[in-house]
Amino acid sequence: MATDEVRKDLRAAVAARQELGPEYEAEVIDSFLAKLDERDAHRQAGALPERAGPPHPSRETDPGGLALAIISVVAAIPITAISADMLGLRGLVVSWAGLVAVNFARTIGRRNTR
To answer: Is the pLDDT of residue 1 over 50?
Structure first.
């Protein structure tokens, strides 16, 4: 797995290649590979810590959770309208409790599987 710094270096290399054109492609690739070799040498020498821990926190590790949240919000609109019209406040509370329970159960289920 590439670190954020390696990703940044790779993006810079690709941008440089696009800007300089294909005639400098070999030099851009060699420069990027030299940076990787240098990082690897530092890591082996103990100067850089090994990458450990969870992936970057801003990356979505469970895209299904986001989809469920979006679907819940979209479904809540007609469910709220129908339940409030038919049963009043009691129907509104029951329908929202159900929506919250579904999302809560999925969150708890995902935590237990990790």
So the answer is: no
